[in-house]
Amino acid sequence: MERPVTSPHELRNPETLARPSGFSHVVMAQAGRTVYLAGQTAQRPDGSIVAGTIAEQFDAAAGNVVLALEAAGAHPQDLVSIQIFVTDIAEYQRLSKQIGDAYRRHFGRHYPAMALLEVSRLFDPQAKVELMAIAVTA
């Protein structure tokens, strides 16, 4: 089940830039309260990391982003920016369909400004993906 697409923020994708796929080039946040989320991995409440592929860990990390947003009274459609850190960009690309399915399950078809970065490792050596996000609520 996908989440609703409506967002209070204005998303723009100028024709002078390459057509975006799965992100927006520009997000103009409406006035409101800014919420900065710490990096979210596939960490369970007990602190252990969900084992599995980068897609499985992305799914768990995205769920943690939603839980963190809810704690701030925010929703996925309030997101204005997401940074995705991965330890293996080739695996991310190979599993992009499953990652896209997980993304839409948690965030719907709301695509804020995003960046995908490959890093040599994350703080927890079992983690393969970490999501950092910023939201602006009304």
Broad structural category:
alpha+beta
Helix percent reads 25-40%
Main beta-sheet strand count, sense and barrel state: 4 strands, mixed
Q: Mean pLDDT across all residues, rounded?
A: 90
Identify low-pLDDT runs: none
The domain tally reads 1
Strand content: 15-25%
In quaternary terms, these chains amount to: single chain
Beta strands, count: 6
CATH topology: 60s Ribosomal Protein L30, Chain: A
For the record, the CATH architecture stands as: 2-Layer Sandwich
What radius of gyration results from the CA coordinates?
15 Å
Spell out the helices and strands N to C.
EEEHEHHEE
In the sheet with the most strands, the strands line up as 3-6-4-5
What would you say this structure looks like, in words?
This protein has a single domain, classed as 2-Layer Sandwich (60s Ribosomal Protein L30, Chain: A). Helix 1 packs parallel to helix 3. It has 138 residues and is α+β, with helices and mostly antiparallel strands. The chain has three helices and six strands; from the N terminus they run E-E-E-H-E-H-H-E-E. The mean pLDDT is 90. It is globular, with a radius of gyration of 15 Å. The strands form two sheets. It has a four-stranded mixed beta sheet with strand order 3-6-4-5, covered by helices on one side. Strands 1-2 form a two-stranded antiparallel ribbon.
